[in-house]
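User: Sequence in, structure out. Go.
Assistant: Echoing your sequence, followed by the structure tokens.
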Amino acid sequence: MSKEVQMSIKMEPELRDQFMAIAASRHRPAAQIIRDLMRLYIAQSEPPNELTADTIRKARRGEDVFHAKDAEDLFQQLGI
């Protein structure tokens, strides 16, 4: 079991009030929303794996890019 630690964050009162109001309106604990945002930030900061990085490089060069007029056209091009 992991040990929880506390963290303090300085922010403008208006920002805190708006955040707390939205959290309350969605019936979600503010701390859970902060943890979710932190996990998302960490996930987005991780470098992509090699296959994803290669796909991004190819797309930037215009390789393996499909242009379709609609989903049906794309599926046909992909043989799906």
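User: And one key feature?
Assistant: The mean pLDDT is 93.
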